[in-house]
Amino acid sequence: MSIAMTFIVALKALRRNAMRTALTALGMIIGVAAVIVMVAIGNGARISIETQIKSAGSNIVMVNAGSGPFGPVRQGQGNTTTLTPEDAEAIRREVPGIRYMSPGVNTRAQLVAESGNWGTQIQGAGQALAELRAWPMQFGAFFTEQDVTRASKVVVLGSVVRDQLFGAGADPTGAVVRIKNQPFKVLGVLTTKGQGANGQDQDDTVIAPYTTVQKKLLGQTHLQNITISAADGVPLDTVTQGITDLLTVRHKIAPGEDNDFLVRTLEEIATVLTSTTTTMTYLLAGIAAVSLLVGGIGIMNIMLVSVTERTREIGLRLSVGARDLDVLRQFLVEAIVLSLAGGAVGIGLGFGAASAVSRFAGWPAVVSPDAVAMSFAFAAAIGIFFGFYPARKAAALDPIEALRFE
Amino acid sequence: MSTPVISVADLTKTYAVGEVEVPALRGVTLEVRAGEFLALTGPSGSGKSTFMHLLGCLDTPTGGGYLLNGDDVSTFSKRDLARVRNRDIGFVFQGFNLLSRTSAMENVELPMLYAGRIPAAERRARAKAALESVGLGARLDHHPNQMSGGQQQRVAIARALVNNPVLLLADEPTGNLDSRTSVEVMDIFQRLNRERGLTIVLVTHEQEIAEHATRIVAFRDGRVRADQQVAYRRDAVVELEHVNAQADADALMTA
Ligand SMILES: Nc1ncnc2c1ncn2[C@@H]1O[C@H](COP(=O)(O)OP(=O)(O)OP(=O)(O)O)[C@@H](O)[C@H]1O
Ligand SMILES: [Mg+2]
To answer: What ipTM goes with this model?
Structure first.
């Protein structure tokens, strides 16, 4: 029988049991869609991290207090008290090739305004942060060096915080907000930046002089981190090395002893983040692939039932001249059609679900052509693999025994 | 003289049911010449169906030889056997064996799907012609469950004929039919035999059906017990006229 005819016969057989066909294909549909959505979410996260890093600048170096095994991004902050404003100043003065420097201490607090209150992160920073991060103001002005020296009670609001406290788009410059029962004057509002590398909203923040955060909010003298940008044309390696050498001396760290700080470029941090995301993506896709496998087993199950049910049909086909190869092909093609149709619908569903996720959950989800091609190929492979055994069982039937089958 | 269509010598078939061996055929020697219409009779269990399956290349004998048109079937590969079943032999079963939920046309087209590349248009034309030749020109798109037993059996006959076989094998084709429908089916067989010279081997329990053939072979316990030409052959056309006249008379009486 010709291949085209085999396809037609397979389609007819599948249509004869439309409900069963649909339910069997559902296994493949869900599997393929799951793989595509998972990979899309992982991809989206990776791409957004990369764009963030690009927009933040490729010339940024971070110094963090502490040195946990997972890097200083979250670990160790607050435990180590050895990183000081003097270190920050020394770095600015002594390490060559530095353009901007901003010391950092962060905390969380509740902001109280007349019209409402809002809990958010308070970033203590130097006056250079706005330039360092290339973050212009929407209203008002950033705080000055004088504000830092005097530890003035002034804040600059992220646009989300402004929206929450004063209403969307308002200009609260000059207003007063209370943090830990102390009045802070609002100097201005930053422009909207959008989602950050780790998925959190960068605009849901308040920036104050680091000295103010240290003295008025935390009552401490040490720093959690220092952000530095290198001057144009200066290799980041030399800056990183310069900072490391300087801090090693200042902190009197003996050779062989662990550093109590970590110096890394933003790109290195991003690499850690993206590699974590990639691992997560593979993990999720792996779990989704298991459902593809389960779908394949469903196909095999139905094909076995189908072969048994149609034993007499097979006997009849053999008796009018079908070769065993014809029978094998017929059932194999049926299984493949089933899994490919499931795969195709699953791809459609995967696209739909991915765009729904990015619309409603706000996660960036980017469907990758690789994932589509791979899950489709996987679906075909599953059809062949799980369809082969039932098909071979059908082809091995003896004409007379098959015809006699009750 | 030309080679016989069927030539079997000392054909045996033994089924193994668990430990027990069941000898179904104990040595059958028989020749069937082209154009013969042979009826095979015998009590139940005498090996008629077993013999037909061997003739139809649906099963393989335990011993003995079978020449089909002079070719030794035992030397054929599985592929060759499929070809023989497809092109050279038409088989009609007692239980029709039509594909359910499939139209008469598609059922008749089935053997052509396995006969190499036959264009769809030609397939349809040949299936239609075959169905018309058995008087089903008006039932092309009917499914088996929309047809009477006699009509289903005629679809099965059309399917057996569609690849123009040299040999038609029919195992109790009238076993499930009433007497009138049986005569109609026999009419088809007689016409095929007479007009196309088709060689036919037909199994039946009934003497009246057997007498439509040109020769009757009787089996008993897996052996040929009797083999003779039919002296007074029945003619289905005459019988049908008779049955119709009878029906008219009945209608007049009750009117
Ligand atoms: N598949 C089988 N396995 C075991 N024994 C079988 C098988 N088929 C047939 N037989 C045995 O072989 C013998 C001949 O059977 P066969 O079906 O050929 O008889 P038959 O003449 O066609 O009978 P009937 O007129 O009832 O159809 C019987 O004794 C039967 O029990
Ligand atoms: Mg029988």
So the answer is: 0.93
